[in-house]
Amino acid sequence: MIVLFEEYQYNTERLKKVLSERYFFPINSSKSKINYVGYYFNPTINEAVVILPKVFINEKSLAFDEFDPETLIYQTIEIKEKLSKTGKDKIVFEISTWLFRAIQQFNKRHYYNSISENQFLNQIVTNLEEKSNTELDIILSLLKFYKENQSFFTFISKSAHSQKNKINWNKTINKKQPIVHDNTPIYFDLATTSKKVNYEEELFVLFYSTLNFIKSKYAFDFSPPQNYELIIGHHYENVLRKGCRYLKSIKYKYYSDKMISLYNLLYAFFERSEKTQSKKQIEEVLLIKDFNIVFEDMIDDLIGDSKLLPELKNHADGKQVDHIYKYKSLLVEDEIYFVGDSKYYKPQNSVGKYSKAKQFTYAKNVIQYNIDLFNDNKLDKQLRYRENLTEGYNITPNFFISAFVNKDFDFSKSYLDETGKPIIQTHFENRLFDRDTLFVQSYNINFLFVLSSYLTNNSTLKANFKKDTQKKFREKLVSFINDKYHFYILEPNDNTFIDKHFKLLNGKVYKPSHFTEEVILALEKPDQTDIISKIQSDIRTKKEYNLT
Q: What does DSSP assign to residue 244?
């Protein structure tokens, strides 16, 4: 298997040997780069080519063109160091297969979806039918059968060997000549039970030999059982040429569902091998341009809410929000929408000015959409974007989320963490409750965790991760705002308080839905004591407060 990397600059002549020229483009007279991610089978060299996302590349990447692409897997420096310690290519095979299945999953999730009606339609390049069997599909199916049927293999093996070499004493006594010692006959030549041809055992030998053969090509964990003599070397190459003919000759020897399934898997493998050798095998393509749309879908599957109104994701100005979900507001009991954007970058890149401006536009669009409902008295009572008495706006949380590759290639943990402090955009200083005061957090998440979670059937794992992550995003922003502002709960003397001090308090006060007469005052640290002194005579009580 050959592994390449999205957007890495390769020697053009080397690339031509392994990848169709349709899938890369020149950047100068000698170098080219690939803008696709996915799977490509090259029948000319009988090799699967996997193009990994650019998140695996950093500034220390090796000059891959120093190596022969037909014999060495291309690696970033981190991957090379890790693989040298863990058995070379096993991790790369696992990453490649997860990626292959993720693109299949994305294609299925959006084939008939509205997403296919816009610019994403031409991003997926494939010649695979829904039930087509690529080389990687067949290999993954063989491995799955092996992992899921260990008890079956053990049972068949014990049954097959239980009678082998069992002594037939009647035949031994009648036909063999013993040596008599101390009146006791001793038989050195024993008659054993003869075995009929065991077709189940023959199929197992073929199965284990096949796994052993493709292990050298794809590098995965497989240790063949010791009680079977495998077909190896040039003997197995002969089997590759005649495998289908041999399987046809024993086709009707199997009756159990499991043996029939194994037979069919092996037949699919040998049939494909014979097509490749006879040059009848065509190239197989499952590639996606702009992998960011798959990454976005993977993240949204983890943290987003697919049941929300489409208008919340697809805005009237043509912009489309990556992630949005409803969650507990930063201000006590009310609810608010959290708005997120997936950033698909190389590890050394960071969020740029354009991305920040775009994210603030997303937030403003969501605010306006809900204000329109609020003005028409159609907004859910639990959702709070503006409050009429103070004309203050609720805090709208925003976040960026990008990916990195964990140095230990750990698929099991998210390693989700905040990167730096939230970015703030304001029109007026010291107005937390102004609609133009916006915050956006930045987070990093382990790409391999996202990849494996996208394909898991463990709904509990996903639900728990979503719950914990949404809680974390809120708590981190609450902590940041508590550090930046002093909060007070004020009880005014009468209902003229807001009107009397409106200019002074505009954007600084807000009344949550469950408050009766009190309002929350937010003052940026260090406190502006002159504001407190100007309103002191018009408030009954004042107590310090923290967002929780």
A: H
